[in-house]
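Async update (no meeting this week)

Hi team, since we skipped the sync, here's where things stand on the single-chain job. The sequence we agreed to prioritize is pasted below, unchanged from the tracker. I ran it this morning and attached the output directly underneath so nobody has to dig for it. Comments welcome in thread, and please keep replies under the output.
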Amino acid sequence: MSRRLDAFTDFCKVCSNMPFCFLPVEDQTLHITKLQKVVRQLKEKLSGNDLLQTRAGQSILSLHTLLQQVPVNELEIATRLKEIYVFFLENNEGIKIEKFDEWKKYLDIFFYRAFHHHEHSRIITETCSHLSQDAQQLHDINMVKDRIIFYVLEYTLQLQIELLKISSVHKQRKAIMHGIIVSAGNLPSLESLMRTFQDDVVYAFCNPLLRDQLLKIFLNFKQAMDTDDVPTIVSALSVYNIQLLHVVLDSGIKQFQGIVYKPYADGTLIRDIIKHLQI
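Output:
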């Protein structure tokens, strides 16, 4: 029973950081295969005890079906795992409570992330369904200007410039954690803004492929932030800015235009900013 619990914990752990579909294909196959094996074993055990018609049995049967679907339905899987968690807890076969605590920790994070993503995606999809294809494209271009350039890049590009002026890692950390005053005003704490940035940017776009692209960019940078290592964060910030600038460029916008912060002069070519950041 302990090994089965470990398989569920491992799956929840990888899904707590980012959508399962973002993992390399070989990793997806590995985790699904491991989980399918555990679910088959549980099916056989419950079937032998005539328990497949119980709520736990139905949850396991449902999970067995869900694991065969491509792409996987994360929210449904997380929901079934919450039900199976209760079954394991009520039928504990000498497993240490710490094992359950670890599983629940990652299960709760996984469920919240999957639910959060599902609901935000549902809302923007519903909103965009009332727009024509041309109107959706125009909406997304306006969101590139409003959310990516004005809301995020003006700030993150300016912050990167300021961080590179600071030679002390301690002072860089202070700027990242608490913000810094510049000529254009106050640059707030990067840490406090990242979650807001992610939600307000990713789920503003009609194009689902663009939403996924942006979500990957934000989650990769979040992983760097989670290291709490300043050089890693500063380096990742440059990659993050470059990736967002490529999104801007791909939308057809060729020149930078600032409103509040002016990290680069108005009219500076986006491709030139990218080249400058790559030096």
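Quick observations from my side:
The chain has a mean pLDDT of 92.
The chain has eleven helices and two strands.
Reply here if anything looks off.
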